[in-house]
Every structure is written in C-alpha cells, then in structure tokens.
Design brief:
Elements (H helix, E strand, L loop, with lengths): L2 H19 L3 H5 L1 H37 L5 H14 L3 H12 L10 E7 L4 H21 L2 E9 L5 E9 L3 H5 L4 E7 L10 E11 L14 E5 L7 H5 L3 E9 L6 E8 L5 H31 L12 E6 L4 E4 L4 E3 L2 H5 L4 H18 L3
Length: 366
C-alpha cells in the first residue's frame, strides 16, 4: 500500500469517531467543543471523499492492467484506452489529497477585523488608504461577504488616516490573511503641479476575529466611560452619551508585562451596542496579540514568509504610471491595476495560497 493510502486508511476510524461525537447531546451542549469538532468533521469529510475517489481510480487502473493480458484484441484495446484516460488522473488527485492532508490553520474559518492606516506620504497616504478600503470592499462584495465599519479617522484631503472594519462570511481569514503588511503606491498625486511621481504607503492588518470562548476576560475589571459622539448624525448624536470607552489592564503571556488597552466605539447611537462592539474589539485585540507567537513560529520556519502577518513587511507595490501590481513575496507581477483596484484581487491571492501550500508541503512528510 502506498503512503497516501496508508494515511487515508488511518483517518477513516477518526472520521467515524468524530461523526458519532457531533451527535452526542453532551458535545452539542459544549459549544466550544462542538464548533471545533464540526470543523474537524468537515475537513475529514473532504479527505475521505477524495480518498474514496483515489481508491476507486487505482482499482479501475488495476483492473484495466489485468485486461491487457487477455487474448481478445478488442479487450486489450479497450484496456489501453481506459488506462490512457485514467492514469493521467492519478497525479493531480494525489496532489489534491496531499494538500487536504496538510493540517489546516484553525483560524482560516474565522471572520476578521481589518485595519488600514495611512503611512508615509501624508495626505496622499491617506487617499491611498481610502483606495485600498474601496478595493477590499468591492472584493468582499464579490465574495458575498458582509463589511461593517467600526472606526474611522478621515484624511484632510480625502481617504482615511485610519479605518477599522469587520468582514464576515465563509473562510474570510483564510483568504484575507495574505493582505497583512505594507502596501506601497507610486503615482502622481492630484496636488502635484510638476507631474512628479511620489511614493506613499499604507499599512494593512488582518486579525482573526475572536469568539467569546477564545479569550478569557474578567469583565469586572473593565473600566467604562461614556461620552457624546461627534460628527454627522443630527441632534441625537450631540445630546446622548452613546459613545463608550473601555480601559482594561492585560498581562501579556509572552512578555509578562501588564499593558493598558484603551478602546473607543462610536459606531452606533445605541450605547449598549457600542459597549458590545467595544468588548468584541477587546477580545480580538487580545487574541491577536496572543496569536502572534503562533504566527512568529510559522515565520521562523519558512523562508519566503508568504503569510506571516508581519505588518512591517513591504508586501506589494501599486505602480500607476506603468499600470503594474507587484507582490514582492512571490515575484508576482501583472499589468491590470485598474481591475485590481476595483476588487479583482483573487488571482493574486490564489498565487499566494499556492506558494504557501508549496512551503507547507515541503515541511510535511509527504
């Protein structure tokens, strides 16, 4: 039996075990365990289905090879034709199974909190941050994902000094995690009278959104303040203290340093909703910091660091005079900048996924 079949055979009993567990009332009552087992069931089901296709394919090939020894010429020709059709299917299916056998990132299925901040370049950096937000919004719309803005600081000439937003849908973090890092733009700003090309930058952070059971927070230690929201919204915004501010002292488990976390939320005119969203952002912020050690461990093992989440790394350049997009992590270059900025970024992400999977397969035993 080849190594792939051995690995698949070893997972059948595990699949049966998980299939039974997710119907157990005691497991269903334990939400954290139930969610984890459901994800494991889904992953194992894909492997089992691919494994069954693989076993059937090898069985048909073996049967066809046996027919090559038949005396009947027509039977031999039929067997040759069948082998010519079946054998080229083996390698692609083996590659598919190898990828499925790689341990999945438990964060991939999570929703995300994205943060875009204008970096070097002043007003032009803020405008570029706004362009990136539009790009991601259009991409998310094409995927059927929901986008909710939670915090905005507008730039003086347009765009955003900073914008924070939530994205929810299917496999959101597994898709958008490759966008973390420094994005650089080269173009002639609208304010430039000499026609010179300027270089600006914006930083993108993609954080897996923490569920309630991912992070332990002592809510009794949170200090809450309320204040009147500012900005557009009519008289209600100015008269009602709907804005909330929380302060929380948190001990970093990696450094053992106690840090004060400060979060403000003015997203809605409903104070309880703002409290709920501020608490959600606190969970995600703490989870992200604790999760960073896991990310750093991955980065230490990989040479090209396709998706390390390193927000200081320059990952991509948007060159407007040449209409060019270059992703520096994998040497990916295309000349369809306008379509890219309109949200057509899936091809680039697909190339990054392939590159990361190649790295992961090198690490595996397969």
């Amino acid at each position: 039996m080849n190594s792939i079949l051995q690995k698949i055979e070893g997972l059948y009993s595990k699949f049966e075990e998980v299939s039974t567990l997710i119907t157990d009332p005691a497991v269903i009552a334990d939400m954290k365990r139930f969610v984890k087992l459901n994800k494991e069931y889904s992953d194992l089901e894909q492997i089992v289905k691919a494994g069954n296709r693989y076993k059937t394919l090898l069985q048909h090939i073996d049967e066809a090879k046996q027919l090559l020894g038949e005396q009947d010429a027509d039977m031999r020709e039929m067997a040759k034709a069948e082998l010519a059709e079946l054998e080229p299917q083996v390698e692609p299916l083996e590659e598919e199974i190898k990828l499925l056998l790689l341990p999945s990132d438990p964060e991939d299925a999570k929703d995300v909190v994205m943060e875009i901040r204008g970096g070097t370049g002043g007003d032009e950096a803020a405008i570029f941050a706004g362009d990136l937000f539009k790009m991601y919004t259009k991409f998310c719309e094409s995927k059927g994902w929901k986008v909710e803005v939670s915090s905005v600081s507008e730039g003086a000439s347009g765009g955003f000094k900073e914008i924070v937003f939530n994205v929810s849908g299917t496999n959101v973090y597994g898709t958008l995690k490759y966008e973390s890092g420094v994005h650089r733009v080269q173009r002639v700003p609208e304010t430039e009278t000499q026609g010179r090309v300027h270089t600006s930058a914006a930083t993108v952070a993609v954080l897996p959104k923490a569920d309630e059971f991912d992070v332990q927070i002592n809510e009794g230690e949170i200090k809450w303040d309320t204040f009147r929201s500012s900005g557009a919204g009519g008289q209600n915004v100015n008269k009602v203290e709907s804005g909330v501010r929380l302060r929380y002292m948190w001990k970093n488990p990696v450094t053992n340093v106690v840090e004060e976390i400060l979060i403000e939320c003015t997203e809605t005119r409903d104070q309880p909703k703002n409290r709920e969203r501020a608490l959600s952002r606190l969970r995600t912020m703490i989870y992200d910091r604790e999760h960073q050690k896991y990310i750093d461990d991955i980065a230490a093992r990989r040479k090209t660091m396709v998706s390390t989440g390193d927000r200081s790394a320059k990952i991509r350049t948007y060159n407007y005079p040449q209409g060019r997009i270059t992703d520096h992590r994998i040497g990916y270059t295309i000349y369809n900048l306008q379509a890219f900025m309109n949200g057509d970024i899936q091809d680039c992400i697909d190339h990054l996924i392939v590159a990361e999977n190649a790295e992961r397969m090198k690490e595996s035993e397969l």
